[in-house]
Design a protein that fits this description.
The complex is a heterotrimer of chains A (177), B (249) and C (353).
Chain A: E1 3-11, H1 16-29, E2 33-38, E3 48-56, E4 70-73, H2 76-82, E5 91-95, E6 109-113, H3 115-121, H4 128-139, H5 148-155, H6 164-176
Parallel strand pairs in A: 1-4, 4-5, 5-6
Antiparallel strand pairs in A: 1-3, 2-3
Helix pairs in contact in A: 1-5, 3-4, 4-6, 5-6
Chain B: H1 24-38, E1 44-48, H2 56-59, E2 63-66, H3 72-82, E3 87-93, H4 94-100, H5 102-110, E4 116-121, H6 151-154, H7 160-165, E5 172-177, H8 181-199, E6 205-210, H9 214-217, H10 221-235, E7 239-243
Chain C: E1 5-8, H1 9-19, E2 24-27, H2 34-43, E3 50-53, H3 57-69, E4 74-78, H4 80-96, E5 100-106, H5 122-127, E6 137-139, H6 144-161, E7 164-170, H7 171-175, E8 177-180, E9 207-208, H8 215-235, E10 239-242, E11 249-252, H9 255-270, E12 275-280, E13 282-284, H10 288-297, E14 300-305, H11 311-318, E15 325-329, H12 338-352
Parallel strand pairs in C: 2-3, 2-4, 4-5, 5-7, 6-7, 11-12, 11-14, 14-15
Antiparallel strand pairs in C: 1-8, 6-13, 10-12
The chains are: A alpha/beta (177), B alpha/beta (249), C alpha/beta (353).
């Protein structure tokens, strides 16, 4: 029985919800049990946004994550808000381009990824979210990295199909970092 | 023996409950005659209001539904959107249509909902015993304006036809009266047109019928009809306020 | 197996409704259920259906009333403050014995309240809301899959018993995405000889009406309606039991609260506490049979709710007050954590030993 609780948090507009959906879809294509729960309401526009993704080999109990196994922090307020909630032994992924702070906890594994810079340098400035997801997929075994393209093809609408390749590149950049 | 006069097929045999001298009976008949003459009785679905005409569902021989107070145009919208091939009409009073149901009235008109609305304006709440209506005249004495309607305190009566005619939406808005034979004949024509418009798919057609309420006005039927002429019609002039196809008159 | 797709709870309701044969939707925007209207607005015109945004919740429920009377499968959806406005129409629909489906994706109250998830419309849904003697079948989905399956079930039950089925969901289930498949959706159809179709001059007119000025007639009508409700109570109770076989502490929770409670039950079992869960799926009729059976077996009930404690009254009522019942709750848009529920279970265990 394996369940991974992933909390992705940042500003509205950083692709927090999309990144979470991608992981959930990836889990779905692997025949896993998944849930995706967004924070919703006015805060979605420009304020903080987060989403909870649960990926499990058994039916998902609560979709609400109190103590994540994995925290992806895309801005400082999100890191400060959730850093202490991560379970001991959990992992934290930080966009170090946007967050100067270091995590003081020693019972969690912390990855500092200059995701925004990587995305900018590679010419897909808006895809720091997917750079981070690439790294998450490398370090966690909640979902496998193989088959990302097929997953993106399955849930990106046909009229935006031109974005599939660039999303794959962003994932790869994060995976390789 | 030759039949020279008979009840329209679109009315049932149920005896009307209306007060002596109440024009609702005339207006019911005009609606029923229009349904008969247009041959749409079998397709018609009527929506009864809350108010004096609440039991109209027993009087019209077509399929009928009883709506909550003011909601008849919304109920009619629901029916018409499900059964566009049917002829859907509401029959409403002034409290129902112009007070509690004003939003439903305005928005069904704005949508040009393809329904027919018969709006009976007798300037009073009849069913509940004679309270002030949104169309009660300035100075009019009612149970809830015992010293006469004071416009400084409770505002001015609403001219529904004029107001709705300002909207882009509706096809046909007309005001008629039933206080004399000439006006009754004209009312019949307008009501029939309001149904014909629906048959032709033209959209929202409302006929405001200026009526009387001898009981709650505290008048004899004769006096009440005279008061329509002397007091009601100057404030609520007869006329076609909107006719998208033929132009207002 | 049918293909699994990821869908938001609100969208699952809309898609299920369409699959159940609903071609008429009347609504008014309110958070957190707007995805239902958006989905309908997109889909209905393409399949010959009608989506209409009404001028108010009051108008939309009355459009539903008209469409239901016309014999169509019809629905509306809203959230708590909007349901208060629809209460008038719900009463008329009940009084006229026509079928409809109404969705309440609950948010915190009272008043304008908030937009975060809540279960504080339990009383409104199960005990009335509108005026007069009437009931609604109240279905409480706990997953996106159930948002769909209970919507279809709700349409079937509404037509079968000529009453309103209410889907009592909450903001969390509405907004979350989970895998869902639409296999084996069983669509039942019922004759509607009472519907307004036009007489075609071939039959006596149909009247859809809730007015009975003679008190004996109105009483008779209500008696008849409650005979029908009795059949619903007997035949349509639905619930899920989890680890109840040997349970001493029985957690009762529905909707999103049941998901949290399930985690807590698992955690309690790890501590050696014999906890179990009864999840009512129908809130009316309440799963009386499950409660009566549990009342003789367990030592303690805990009602877990996103309210100040509303369902707890029914937990007490249907367990015959045989065992202690305690409340574990958050409200106003807050959700109890599994730890909070676990602590309640521990406390109950202490009391029960």
């Amino acid at each position: 029985m394996k369940t991974t609780q992933i909390l992705i948090a940042g500003f509205g507009g950083q692709g927090v919800l999309f990144a979470g959906k991608f992981l959930a879809y990836k889990g779905l294509t692997e025949e896993q049990q998944v849930s995706w729960l967004p924070s919703y309401g006015p805060e979605m526009r420009g304020g903080t946004a987060n989403c909870s993704v649960v990926i499990s080999d058994t039916p998902v109990g609560s979709p609400i994550i109190t103590n994540p196994d994995v925290l992806v922090a895309m801005n400082l307020p999100s890191l400060l808000k959730f850093v202490d909630a991560v379970v001991p032994g959990g992992q934290i992924f930080i966009d170090s381009t946007l967050i100067d702070a270091k995590v003081e906890r020693t019972d969690v594994k912390v990855h500092y990824i200059p995701a925004t810079q990587i995305a900018k340098d590679a010419g897909f400035a808006t895809l720091s979210n997917m750079v981070l997801m690439g790294k998450v997929m490398k370090e966690c075994d909640a979902v496998s990295y193989a088959g990302c393209k097929e997953t993106l093809e399955a849930f990106i609408p046909a009229k935006k199909a031109n974005l599939i390749d660039v999303n794959c590149q962003a994932l790869q950049a994060g995976y390789d970092y | 023996m030759k039949t020279v006069f008979q009840k329209p097929k679109s009315l049932t045999d149920a005896p009307l409950h209306y007060c002596p001298g109440c024009p609702h009976g005339i207006i019911h008949r005009l609606v029923a005659e229009a349904l008969d003459e247009l041959g749409i009785e079998g397709k018609a679905i009527g929506v009864a209001p809350v108010g004096c005409a609440v039991m109209a569902y027993d009087y019209f021989a077509c399929d009928m539904i009883e709506a909550a107070h003011g909601r008849a145009p919304a109920v009619a919208t629901g029916i018409k959107r499900c059964r566009p091939e049917n002829i859907v009409f509401t029959y409403q009073g002034d409290g129902d249509l112009a007070s509690i149901g004003m939003a439903e009235t305005v928005h069904s008109a704005a949508r040009n909902e393809n329904i027919t609305v018969i709006f009976v304006n007798n300037a009073i709440y009849g069913m509940t015993g004679g309270q002030m209506a949104p169309t009660s005249l300035p100075g009019q004495v009612t149970q809830t304006s015992p010293y006469g309607r004071d416009v400084k305190h409770c505002g001015w009566p609403i001219r529904v036809s004029e107001m709705l005619a300002t909207l882009e939406g509706p096809e046909y808005i007309a005001r008629v009266a039933v206080n004399n034979v000439k006006n009754v004949n004209a009312a019949k024509k307008a009501i029939k047109k309001a149904f014909q418009n629906q048959i032709d798919g033209k959209g929202f057609s409302l006929v405001e019928v200026v009526s009387a309420c001898p009981t709650n006005w505290g008048m004899t039927p004769q006096q009440a009809l005279e008061w329509v002429e002397s007091d009601m019609l100057p404030y609520y002039p007869i006329g076609v306020y909107k006719d998208r196809t033929e132009g207002a008159k | 197996m049918a293909e699994r797709v990821l869908m938001k709870g609100n969208e699952a309701i809309a898609e299920a409704a369409i699959r159940a044969g609903c071609r008429h939707y009347f609504g008014y925007p309110i958070t957190p259920q707007t995805e239902i209207a958006a989905y309908m607005a997109k889909k209905m015109p393409k399949i010959g259906g009608v989506f209409l945004q009404a001028e108010s919740e009051v108008a939309s429920i009355n459009m539903v009333y008209g469409a239901a009377a016309a014999g169509m499968r019809v629905m509306t959806s809203s959230s708590s403050p909007g349901i208060s406005l629809k209460a008038e129409g719900l009463s008329y629909i009940a009084g006229s014995d026509v079928p409809a489906l109404v969705v309440n994706v609950q948010r915190g109250g009272p008043g304008l309240g908030g937009i975060q998830p809540s279960q504080s419309d339990y009383f409104q849904a199960t005990k009335g809301g509108g005026h007069g003697d009437y009931r609604m079948i109240v279905l409480a989905p706990a997953s996106v899959q159930e948002m769909a399956s209970l919507t279809i079930k709700g349409f079937n039950l509404a037509d079968k018993y000529l009453m309103t089925s209410m889907i009592l969901a909450d903001g969390t289930i509405g907004q979350m995405m989970e895998p869902i498949s639409f296999e084996d959706a069983e669509i039942e159809t019922y004759e509607k000889p009472w519907a307004l179709t036009g007489t075609n001059c071939e039959r006596k007119h149909n009247i859809v009406n809730s007015l009975y000025l003679q008190p004996d007639e109105l009483e008779k009508k209500n008696f008849e309606r409650y005979e029908r409700y009795k059949i619903v109570e007997e035949n349509e109770q639905m619930w899920e039991e989890y680890m109840m076989e040997d349970a001493e502490i029985c957690v009762v929770a529905f909707g999103i609260a049941s998901r949290v409670a399930k985690n807590a039950v698992v955690a309690a079992r790890k501590e050696g506490i014999k906890a179990g869960l009864i999840r009512p799926i129908t809130l009316w009729p309440f799963p009386k049979k499950a409660m009566e059976a549990a009342a003789d077996k367990v030592k303690h009930f805990i009602s877990v709710e996103l309210s100040m404690g509303q369902m707890i009254e029914d937990v007490r009522l249907y367990s015959g007050c045989k065992k202690p019942v305690t409340l574990c709750n958050r409200c106003g848009g807050m959700i109890p954590s599994p730890d909070q529920v676990l602590e309640s279970i521990r406390q109950a265990q202490k009391g029960a030993c």
